[in-house]
Design a protein that fits this description.
Blueprint (H helix, E strand, L loop, with lengths): L12 E6 L3 E6 L10 E9 L17 H13 L8 E5 L2 H11 L5 H4 L2 E3 L5 E6 L7 E6 L14 H5 L3 H17 L7 E5 L2 E2 L17 H18 L2 H12 L3 H19 L24 H14 L13 H16 L1 E6 L16 E4 L9 H17 L12
Antiparallel strand pairs: 1-2, 2-3, 3-5, 3-6, 4-6, 7-8, 7-10, 8-9, 10-11
Helix pairs in contact: 1-9, 5-6, 7-10, 8-10
Length: 398
C-alpha cells in the first residue's frame, strides 16, 4: 500500500522552514514507525494561486528531486552525507487544512508571495535532521549580494581548509546571525526541532545555564570548527563547484553566442536577432534537461570531462557546458546541516563523527535562470568596480 500523509493529521506536523521552491514540516505526532524522524517537504506555488500542471493527473509522478538524487547526486556525493528521500501521497483537503493551520507561522514576506501547492498529490518525506535531541546548524555557503558579504562572511574561508580562515568564517556567520536577530540568510540554528533567535540561544547549552553572548559564541565556534575541519563534505562541494563551473557565466555566455552564430551561418540565417542565454531560438534548441539528460551528463562528467579543453571550448560542446553550469549552481546554492550535542561553555567540545554533516537543497536548476545569473554577474562586477573598501575573498584552492 502506498504511503499517504493522510494517515496523520495536519496538527501533527510543525512548520520548520522554507526556501524558494519548497516548505518543510516535521512530524510531532504520536509514535508512528512510518513517520517518526522525518520531515515533509512540499512544493510551493506563487500567489495568486495557479493550478499546477499536475492538477487532475491520477498517476502524478514522484517529485523529480527523488529521482535526481538517486540517479545523479548519489553518484557524486557519498550516501552518508545525503538525506533519505521517499515519495508520499497527499490530498487537496489535507493540504488546505495544513495551509490554514500553519500559514500564520510563516514569515510575512513569504506568505505574500506563495503557499503550499495544494493541487499536488505527492510530497517528499526526508530524514529529519533538525528535530531530534540535538543542536542542528544549517549553513548556506552562498553569499547573497549586499547581505552576507557586507557583513564579512566569505564562503571561500569555509572551503579553504585553513583552520584560522575557517574559524573566522564561523565567527562571521555567528555575528551576522546575532546582529540580524537570526534572520541572516547563511545561518540557521535549531534546538530540538525549533528554530531559535539570538535572544533564545541559552538552550543551545548542555545545562541550559545562563552565560554571556561572547562565551556562547566561543562555545559554538569550538564545537563546530573541528567537525568542519574533519568532514570531507566541504571539499566535495568545493571540488564539484569549481570543476563544473569551468567557464563561469561570462565564458558560458560567450560560448552561447559563438554556437548561435555558427548554427545560424550553417542554416543560412544571418538576420535573426540573438537570443538570451538558455532560451531556445531560431538557431539553438535549448530544452530543459530531463532526468535522462542529467544521467547521461553525469556519465560523461565522471568519465571524460577532463579531456575537454576548457581554455578553448567548442560550440559543439555547448550542451555539456550548459548542464555543467546548472549543476555547479546546485552545489553553490546547497546547504549543509551539522548535528551537534548541546554546547558546553567550558572545556573541549565533545567528539562528533564527520558523518553528522548532511548536504541538503540539491534541486536541479532550470535553464531559464541562466539569463538572470548573467545579469546578476554583470551587476556584481559593476558594483565591485564602482565600490570602495572592497572585500577580497581568496580562493586557497586555486
Amino acid at each position: 500500500m502506498a504511503l499517504s500523509v493522510t494517515e496523520t493529521f495536519p496538527h501533527q506536523w510543525k512548520y520548520v522552514s522554507e526556501g524558494g521552491a519548497t516548505i518543510v514540516f516535521s512530524y510531532i505526532g504520536p509514535p508512528n514507525p512510518r513517520f517518526d524522524g522525518v520531515v515533509l517537504r512540499l512544493r510551493k506555488a506563487a500567489l495568486p494561486s495557479v493550478p499546477s500542471l499536475q492538477e487532475g493527473i491520477q498517476d502524478e509522478p514522484d517529485d523529480p528531486l527523488i529521482e535526481f538524487q538517486q540517479k545523479c547526486m548519489a553518484r557524486l556525493i557519498p550516501s552518508e552525507h545525503l538525506p533519505r528521500l521517499e515519495s508520499v501521497h497527499t490530498t487537496r483537503d489535507w493540504l488546505e487544512s495544513l495551509v490554514i493551520l500553519h500559514d500564520p507561522e510563516r514569515p510575512p514576506e513569504r506568505r505574500a508571495k506563495d503557499q503550499v501547492d495544494v493541487s499536488r498529490r505527492k510530497g517528499v518525506l526526508a530524514t529529519d535532521l533538525v528535530g531530534g535531541n540535538w543542536l542542528a546548524v544549517e549553513i548556506k555557503m552562498k553569499s547573497k549580494t549586499g547581505e552576507a558579504v557586507s557583513l564579512g562572511f566569505c564562503p571561500l574561508d569555509l572551503f579553504s581548509g585553513d583552520k584560522d580562515r575557517m574559524l573566522k568564517a564561523i565567527y562571521d556567520l555567528w555575528d551576522a546571525w546575532s546582529n540580524n536577530n537570526g534572520m541572516a540568510n547563511n545561518l540557521k540554528i535549531f534546538v530540538h526541532g525549533s528554530k531559535i533567535s539570538p535572544s533564545e540561544a541559552n538552550p543551545m547549552l548542555s545545562d541550559n545555564a545562563e552565560t554571556s553572548h561572547s562565551e556562547l559564541r566561543e562555545a559554538f565556534a569550538r564545537a563546530l570548527l573541528p567537525l568542519l575541519l574533519e568532514t570531507p563534505v566541504l571539499h566535495i562541494i568545493s571540488t564539484l563547484q569549481r570543476s563544473l563551473d569551468s567557464l563561469d557565466i561570462e565564458g558560458l555566455s560567450k560560448l552561447w553566442r559563438l554556437a548561435e552564430s555558427a548554427q545560424g551561418r550553417s542554416n543560412g540565417m544571418y538576420d535573426a536577432p540573438p537570443s538570451h542565454i538558455g532560451a531556445s531560438s531560431a538557431y539553438l534548441d535549448s530544452t530543459e534537461p530531463t532526468i535522462t539528460d542529467w544521467t547521461k551528463f553525469v556519465d560523461v562528467y565522471l568519465s571524460s570531462s577532463a579531456c575537454l579543453d576548457h581554455s578553448s571550448p567548442l560550440p559543439e560542446n555547448l550542451r555539456f557546458y550548459l548542464l555543467a553550469y546548472l549543476l555547479s549552481a546546485t552545489f553553490k546554492d546547497c546547504s549543509i546541516i551539522v548535528r551537534l550535542d548541546n554546547l558546553r561553555p567550558t572545556g573541549p567540545a565533545k567528539k562528533v563523527k564527520p558523518e553528522q554533516v548532511t548536504i541538503i537543497d540539491l534541486d536541479p536548476k532550470s535553464m531559464a535562470r541562466l539569463q538572470k545569473w548573467e545579469k546578476l554577474d554583470r551587476e556584481i562586477v559593476e558594483a565591485y568596480i564602482a565600490g570602495s573598501g572592497r572585500k577580497v575573498c581568496v580562493d586557497a584552492l586555486r
